[in-house]
TrEMBL record:
This is Hemerythrin. It comes from Pseudoduganella namucuonensis. Residues 16-120 form the Hemerythrin-like domain. It comes from the Bacteria. InterPro entries: Hemerythrin (IPR050669), Hemerythrin-like (IPR012312), Hemerythrin-like_sf (IPR035938), Hemerythrin_metal-bd (IPR012827).
Length: 143
């Protein structure tokens, strides 16, 4: 199986996100090498960890009134949906969908990191002044 490895070229300059992404890629590599018996509980832990990481990013976007919150949240949900379906198959004794999703995850994450997460890291480095933040996003957007 071909696996993408973490590279410092994927760093965004946001220490928390960079560390989370590095650890994620390490865990994907470990998980891919597990036999089915150990794979099932490790898969569950991976999905929980992704859910927690995504919630953390979404909380940061809410604090920043990040204009990309909705699209970013939708992409997180789109990534989690096949993982949840694969969890169902895994619990019914079929590891194939989870193994296939695991092989795709590094590719999905590279695309996500260089698009959505990069925009978030830039917003975190240059936050709007508090007076311009609202619950639904910035008061003014530029077209
Ligand atoms: Fe993200």
């Amino acid at each position: 199986m071909h696996t993408l490895l973490w590279s410092s070229a994927m760093e965004l300059g946001h220490a928390g996100m960079d560390e989370s992404h590095r650890l994620l890629f390490e865990s994907l590599g470990r998980l891919a090498r597990l036999a089915d018996r150990e794979f099932t509980p490790a898969w569950g832990a991976l999905v929980q960890r992704l859910e927690a990481d995504f919630r953390e990013e979404e909380a940061l976007m809410e604090r920043l009134a990040h204009p990309g919150l909705r699209a970013h949240r939708e992409q997180h949900a789109s990534m989690l949906a096949p993982l949840h379906r694969a969890t169902g198959a895994l619990l019914r004794g079929d590891p194939a969908p989870a193994r296939q999703a695991l092989a795709q995850l590094p590719h999905w994450f590279v695309l996500h990191i260089v698009s959505m997460d990069l925009a978030l890291a830039e917003a975190a480095a240059n936050p709007l002044p508090p007076a311009l933040r609202t619950a639904s996003g910035p008061l003014h957007t530029y077209n």
